[in-house]
Amino acid sequence: MAAMPKRRLPHLRREKSRHGRVKWFFRLGDGPRIRLPDDYDLDPASGFMQAYQAALTGSDVPKKPRSRYPQNTLGWLLDQYEQSAKFAALAKATRQSYGYQIKAIREKSGSVRLIDITERSIRRAREARAATPNAANAFLKVMKVAFAWGMESGLLDDVIDRDPAKEVKRIDIKTEGHHTWTVEEIERYEARWPLGTMERLALDLLACTGLRREDVYQIGRQHIKGGEIHVRASKTGGWIYLPVLPALQESIDATKTGELTLLLNTKGQPHLNAKAFGKWFGKACERAEVPGRAHGMRKAAATLVAERGATVHQMMAIFGWDSERMAIHYTRKANRKKISLEHGELLDRK
């Protein structure tokens, strides 16, 4: 027996885009035309029915995202994405990173029409930034996520036929990245900044926790419970649980710290953000005549843990990674070193 057709609610209009996507709109008399979720579901608890009831009663009708750019321009798309639920669900650090790129792209190319943006033009824009490959890849990442969201949400159904950023490849960066601290460099830094200084505490927090700079500068007394550090990773949103190692506890006890944040700047105030902390710590490194920076200490910690035999999942828990990729990188590197040292005598001709 064929399924009974769903009844049509009043004040609804069904439309189909040129790509075949069914769209529903609510309009009461000469009132505003309100877009409803695409999935026509009469269940009272469904998103469709909740949006329908809100439109019918005039309560909690979602406000249209604002933009100072004309509709169907790149600036308009970026504004819609930045005000979307998808963007709001990102980790704070990711939102900040994307936000910097979005602002720069809008200022330079916000008025460009979306129909004029092609795969070729995005590739040219990436190549124009090739002298700074990390910046080029950051630009491309934002273009990819914004266009992908626009296509997936249906916002661009009647604007463009295909995602122009989807097939553009990242620039392959062959580099070791941030310098990894050596034991000699750590000892040189410690000699310049003895126990009890804020600069020494910063190093000890980085070295004894392996936390990102985005997290370590925010550590305060409220994060330390029963000899453990409990902190939510700003990048992934996951919780990290770490023991307060004796060396770190000694450093905390010897330093006149803050309360809500242990680390304070030269004015005795909490660092405004991760960038400000990184700049302050970088100056401390320069005065100690060492090349390392905050992220390089995280790399040194990950290398040490891997060389001591930590498993992939142990490393994911310690460093707050939400995928195996980085953990596998460090464990493979450690395994190669171990195997080379254990069997290097095979090269001996005697």
Structure description:
- GO terms for molecular function: DNA binding.
- Residues 176-343 form the Tyr recombinase domain.
- This is Site-specific recombinase XerD.
- Keywords: DNA integration, DNA recombination, DNA-binding.
- Belongs to the 'phage' integrase family.
- This protein is mainly alpha-helical and 350 residues long.
- It has three domains: 12-57, no CATH class; 74-153, DNA polymerase, domain 1; 183-341, Intergrase catalytic core (hpI Integrase, Chain A).
- 47% of the residues lie in helices and 7% in strands.
- It contains 14 helices and six strands.
- The chain has helices at residues 47-57, 74-82, 85-88, 92-109, 119-128, 133-153, 183-192, 198-209, 213-216, 246-254, 274-287, 294-307, 312-319, 325-343, and strands spanning 12-16, 22-26, 34-36, 224-225, 228-232, 239-243.
- It has a three-stranded antiparallel beta sheet, covered by helices on one side. It has a three-stranded antiparallel beta sheet with strand order 4-5-6.
- It is elongated, with a radius of gyration of 27 Å.
- The termini are far apart.
